[in-house]
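Box 3.1. Reading complex inputs
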Amino acid sequence: MTELELDNPTTVDEHVSRLVEMLKTADAEAVDAYLDKLDSTVLTAVLSRFTAEQRQALFEQTDKVHGARYLHELPDVQTVSAVEKLPAQVAATLLEELPNSEQADIVGHLSSAKQESIYSEMPQENAEAVRELVKYADDEAGGLMVVRYVAVHQDSSVRDIIENLQTNAEKYSDFAVQYIYVVDSDGVLRGVLPLRSLVLASANSKARQLMIGSPLTVDVHAKLLELHEFFEEHRFVGVPVVDAEKRLLGVLRRGDLEEAISNKYAQDYLKTQGIVNEELRSMPLAVRSRRRLAWLSINIFLNLTAASVVAAYQETLAQVIALAVFLPIISDMSGCSGNQAVAVSMRELSLGLVGPKEVFRVWMKEVSVGLINGFCLGVFISLLATFWQGNAWLGMVVGIAMMVNTIIAVSIGGTLPLIMKRLNLDPALASGPILTTVTDMCGFFLVLGSATLILDKLV
Amino acid sequence: MTELELDNPTTVDEHVSRLVEMLKTADAEAVDAYLDKLDSTVLTAVLSRFTAEQRQALFEQTDKVHGARYLHELPDVQTVSAVEKLPAQVAATLLEELPNSEQADIVGHLSSAKQESIYSEMPQENAEAVRELVKYADDEAGGLMVVRYVAVHQDSSVRDIIENLQTNAEKYSDFAVQYIYVVDSDGVLRGVLPLRSLVLASANSKARQLMIGSPLTVDVHAKLLELHEFFEEHRFVGVPVVDAEKRLLGVLRRGDLEEAISNKYAQDYLKTQGIVNEELRSMPLAVRSRRRLAWLSINIFLNLTAASVVAAYQETLAQVIALAVFLPIISDMSGCSGNQAVAVSMRELSLGLVGPKEVFRVWMKEVSVGLINGFCLGVFISLLATFWQGNAWLGMVVGIAMMVNTIIAVSIGGTLPLIMKRLNLDPALASGPILTTVTDMCGFFLVLGSATLILDKLV
């Protein structure tokens, strides 16, 4: 493999097809050399487009340092399935090259059989550490903390500490060492020692004399919003994570927390659009199609429920066919209005600006917007219908339906995420379909029901 | 104001009404004492619910330290409007309590008249620094970097540096000092000096001898995705930001970058649902209603365009009224399918897994999903229509329309975000409405057009 052979490939797909050829000849070094030359962004895109089999071939041929890098660069959703397919021994070797917290992120999402077989291939100490970390949820401090930090006993002298730093210089080199954590014999966090103050201290002083006592900490079970508020209030880069007995368990870095929040927002958006499990287009067609279809199937049944209202009023509709033009408009506009309210509630919930119990406050706020916007939309559509068909009664029917249904839509849209949150359901996932179904049913009923009542004025 | 008077208020609204009373008596200290007792989360919620006038009264009464804290705790979208309403002199005093980068975030979003009047009230040095920072966009390294870092000349000795740290201990205390940046006389970054190595060095060594040379940097104009990839590849807490001449301009911390990304995701989700400017329910009703209505107005016109297809085929519809039941179903299901494709494209774009030019690749990937899912949905709805009305021709009309329209919807949904990205339009904002309008028109046309062709089989 010479430089020349690379001759400036331009697209990701070209890289992929070259690499697939190279993988067939099983020249692992050439593959690694090729991948080493790629930008990190391109590398991620290339790795994500391999098939499961190609990826497995890559991981089984490459050395552990490269393999660990590829695992790290793969989009998260593919990392788990890649590791699942690897022999436990290969997986364990690659994982050990990653920080414990990253190992736990991956292992925690594997099947439990795979987890056990990987643990059995790991050095016991590492397996124990990962097992501990896997217990924590992805959205709490324990699931996000790193366990690479420097802790010293409170009776250590500055000389001891500096010696420790010197001895372990290499090990600490990719730690984020800015503070040294000071603990007592029970592992209880007693203080933090900024590296800075170590610089200025005499060799014989003890950690307990130099440390800043009663340091701020977060509980290992603290959730994203609470943690975000902590970092908003305190301009720290990291915070020690402790258990109920104040024993030091890890360090939560602000970057990792914010990344978890950003992932949560991205997943929430995907879920509102019916992508429940993250999908990449490089995944197998059957998986993509099946997952999307699962969501569509639920929606088609909800749609049928709503459409059954139209079916029930076919006779009215047959007599005033102009109504059929307005049904999709009222359905779609109510969906728009309601989804605006859903979006504002989701956002206020995630900023902590509204509590899940404040349903009444949110409802009042939404009703007032709904009154104004419903009035405007209703008058507009009513005038349009009146002049188009020359029938003010028709205008009244669709105008009032639009107005009332806008109020219904924002009421449901605004309060539903709060209610779902209280019921411990995922507001991102279910708010949309429930909203659409209910507002469609109400909208169709309002138009067709009132038209039936005054049918003689409309025909 | 005694402790007793607080008697355990429970809801945010109760805090607000107490504080509003207190603000009337203009007892600033009592207000600050009350707010000091609140949790940071509750404080943010309380501040966000004041009216603009109440907030202004608070800022004008309080001292600058408290005022700066309230500014910092307010949701971003309210900070800007709060500062806009303050007298320039009060605003300048409060802003100066915040880090320069945070000042720039706020000032950069003010009206230009307000910006100038605030600059004129600031000490010149601070005004210059903020003016520089305001130039950078919110989504590039320059707009996210902090300018609080410790830089030393490459010829400084360890003794000088330690003296510098001692002298400025207080100033540096809320800096994230982990590295000291080493520059030459032109301000060009020459190396970084881990605090750790300072601990171990002799007093006479020079920075240039101890520093790690050729440090990794990011360009001041680097964008979010590129920056995210940088931190994915390198486990740093921060990276120096430089201009084209490699002069050190600031430090980008991973936490700040990830927070910006998470904000972008949150804003993108709000935009897809028609909340174009972030809305909090504590904003004035007129603003909330007007902004939402702007979006709804665009949508109602798009809806009318789509409904005009139904209007054009009223005669067909009048003869086969059962079709009216299926129109909203086909419209809604196509919207669902198309929005799934939009969501996957948005996600792949933001992860850098697909380039904006790969329209054809995405289209092919979507067509294959569309064929399968369109077939399944089409067969289902076709059987349903056939048995319900006892007419296989009707089943064929709605089935084929569902199938074809699903393929159209995923094709448009998948490619539209890429095309908009290439045209420098915001894919989050416009993809949804364009998709819905086109798929509605196509869906209505497919059902009613084909029904018209075989009308004699349907009646």
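In summary: Chain A touches chain B through 121 residues (CB under 8 Å).
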